[in-house]
Amino acid sequence: MKSEVNNFIINIATANGTGSQSSNLILLHSMFEMGIPVSGKNLFPSNISGLPTWFIIRASESGYQAPGDKTNIQILMNKDTWEKDIAKIEPGAIIIYNENVKLPVEREDCKIFSMPMTKMARGIAPKFAKLMANMYYVGGIAHILGIKSEDIEKSVSSQFKGKDRAIEMNMRAIREGISYAAEHWGNETTFSAERRDKDPDTYLIEGNEASALGSIYGGVNMLAWYPITPSSSVAEGIIKWLPELRTAKDGGTTCAVIQAEDELAAVGMVLGAGWAGGRGMTCTSGPGISLMSEFIGLSYFAEVPGVIWDVNRVGPSTGLPTRTQQGDLSMLYEASHGDTQHIVLIPGNVDECFEFGWRAFDYAERYQTMVFGFSDLDLGMNRWPTTGFVYPDSPMDRGKVIHTQKQLDAIENYGRYRDVDGDGIAYRTLPGSGIDPILYRGTGHDEDGIYSEEPDVYHKNMARLRKKIEGSRDVLPAPILREEEIKEVGIVFYGSMEYTITEIDDILEQSGLSVSTCRVRALPYHSDLEGFIDRHETNIVLEMNRDGQLYGILRRELPVKLLSKLHSLAYSDGMPPRARLYADKILQLLEGL
Q1: For residue 156, what pLDDT band results from cuts at 50, 70 and 90?
Q2: Which domains are delineated in the chain?
Q3: Fewest 10 Å CB contacts: which of 83, 196, 434, 501?
């Protein structure tokens, strides 16, 4: 009797560059298409090939998508991590290993199944045996969980679409794996995968590809980028979809794509596009933002629109390039030297990656400034479910742009940096419109754009810039509040923690603690956040960094009367957030108050 139906965690330990990603995605998509709530985490090294990689698949009848607390089924394929992987397994787990590696598996408290995967793969294609061996553990898991070969075949056909020979060879390997497991392993296992009703419109997509699609629908005219993990697939997604979605009448595309020589050149091109009236963007990660800082300051002070997507990895320095973190938030909000304040959009799921992808351009042109999309490696490079994206039904917000002399004459006392409407946002003109002069200055300037070092002129200009960005607070996406009734404790969080917060909430409730939650989706923070904090006696700011960066921002900007209600819980180890770990830390924090 299989007692754990659609509730298990598979950890697949392989080496980077051995073709295991195809096998892992086949398993993930097979279960997803069966209607099983499932998620996948790819933990890969920062080199091209050879170093250890792990892929964690979690099936959860409750829909939990965090990595989970323990491994139920461990696949051993990498001799370099063999002993450590075995040592981490808890009693009662299932171990499946490639016996051709010729290393021992000595765990009397686990169920151990072996298969000569490499040897069997040589029987199909000796040249590709190293790659094909992975398909045999797909067959072994399919046998253990009761996944039918026809369900696997659909995923194989999708993974190797248009490559009939590859489909045939890989399906043969999987069927051989199923047959071997049935003959040698028996059927006495605890876990099973059972089909559930599935919304036919639901599919899996990476956050980076969702951001790319959102940017295309937002009217991006120019993409300048320099490759860096984990943001490169944002650019690659735009490049992939442009021929289908942005084809001009002459057969070309309506978006220029330039791979720059470095991050400085890329962001400089973004400013050039914004100055010319186009919608320019780049994508990068923390090290790239560090290099772009001077141009970001130019965008802020000269008031040139642009968009940067930062897909956060672990810093500082090179850090852990292929691990996840929320360590760039403070840097984005105040990027560049001097006094700056930037609009930061923080998606928490793939639907918001798409939405904020197009909204970023509207905000950039409305407020004539650089706007950041702030994602992270976990959200950006893993696959998440969606039922499809909502196409923007409103026209693009191009902001206060003067196109004709008649429009200019209708504005009393026009100056490039003069606030004639009282909202801090000046009107701008564009090159090629026939209106002179076109003024943008990164040095001190007065309301007419004329160079000035007068103290009162500088002070007044900086106050207007602050007023402009502060005015965006309640225009930007409001926080998502979950407070059916007012609880004593409120949890404030942001970003990809959204995929873990439900499980954290359930664990806390099992411990006797009920909480409300508030997910911040943009900076400057929305006024709804102040109301949430005020309604709770204790508020914990939960984030994946060491220094409590959102907590620090809130400490500076919240009314003084709310500060005593605010507490920081910041933790980062490069891994996607595990629900049990963060729930335990919340309980420990509350015990110490």
Answers
A1: very high
A2: 4-192 (3.40.920.10), 205-386 (3.40.50.970), 401-470 (no CATH), 480-592 (3.40.50.920)
A3: 434
